[in-house]
Write a structure and sequence with these properties.
Largest sheet: 8 strands, antiparallel
Distance between the termini: 10 Å
Order of helices and strands: EEEEEHHHEEEEEHHEEEHHHE
Number of strands: 14
CATH architecture: 4-Layer Sandwich
CATH topology: Phosphatase 2c, domain 1
Strand content: 25-35%
Radius of gyration: 18 Å
Oligomer: single chain
Structural class: alpha+beta
Number of domains: 1
CATH class: Alpha Beta
Number of helices: 8
Shape: globular
């Protein structure tokens, strides 16, 4: 059966931020190019793939927002070229392709940063979820996240690119200590930021009917413990909109200092 995807995306500026440096994008892609989709909708996965992306920008002035929005726009322009290549009989490796596209975007962001003094150091995180009829392909750099809730359990699919997060996963520190560590937002992988290279994490996983995914920036995880994320995703199973609003409201009520962005996706 053809899966039907339902999604809801939300973003808001942090209370201490003059401008929202987060960006998110939903688009379909096929042989005829890309089509940007609304923040809240549903679509069968028939002739075109579905791609969801969240990016958290960094840099002074407008540089952070520019970086995050530019990353997603470039990817929406370049990913459809894959289908034209496939139509000519060349079938690229999705993981290799994603890795290279992220590296190309990394170079483009660094080049943009050199064009204007106000853009110096601009960069952003990226978490991208690309649904094809066969698999979900993931590209990731930084500390934005992808979660999967399946069969009553919620797990973080991506890994934060920070040394502090590694300590948490090794059991060297508790979640409470991790959340209060001032260095937890120091990232060793970002797109742009003046770094000479980026080594994005790419992966392919299967998805199934009943899966619920969430992409989010760290504004969500600043305000929500892991148990709160699971609880909110486990409720409102008939509505991605209700789930997204519940997550956003609780994250802002508990913290809200940083920009907060999320997309909840259901596989029907």
């Amino acid at each position: 059966m053809t899966p039907i995807f339902e999604w809801s995306g939300l973003t808001t500026s942090g209370r201490r931020k003059p401008k929202n440096d987060d960006s998110f994008l939903v688009f379909s892609a096929g042989i005829n190019g890309a089509t940007e989709l609304s923040a809240e909708s549903s679509s069968p996965l028939t002739n075109e793939d579905l791609i969801f992306g969240v990016s958290d920008g960094m840099g002074g002035g407008n540089a952070g927002h520019l970086a995050s929005s530019l990353i997603l726009r470039i990817l929406s322009e370049t990913i459809p070229k894959t289908f034209k290549t496939a139509a000519q009989g060349f079938h690229p490796d999705y993981l290799e392709l994603l890795s290279q596209k992220v590296k190309d975007v990394h170079s483009a962001i660094n080049e943009k940063a050199t064009s204007n003094e106000n853009f110096r150091g601009m960069g952003a995180t990226l978490t991208l979820a690309w649904f094809t009829p066969e698999n979900l392909y993931i590209a990731h750099a930084g500390d934005s996240r992808l979660y999967l809730m399946r069969d009553g359990k919620t797990q973080q699919i991506t890994e934060d690119h920070s040394f502090c997060w590694r300590k948490l996963k090794r059991g060297e520190i508790t979640e409470r200590r991790y959340r209060n560590d001032p260095k937890r937002s120091v990232l060793y992988e970002v797109i742009g930021g003046g770094h000479s290279k980026v080594r994005p994490a790419v992966a392919a996983i299967t998805y199934q009917q009943g899966d619920r995914f969430m992409l989010c920036s760290d504004g969500v995880t600043d305000g929500l413990w892991e148990k709160h994320i699971h609880s909110a995703l486990d409720k409102n199973r008939d509505s991605t909109s209700a789930a997204a609003n519940a997550l956003m409201t609780r994250a802002i009520d508990n913290d809200g200092s940083d920009d907060t962005t999320l997309i909840v996706i259901d596989v029907r």
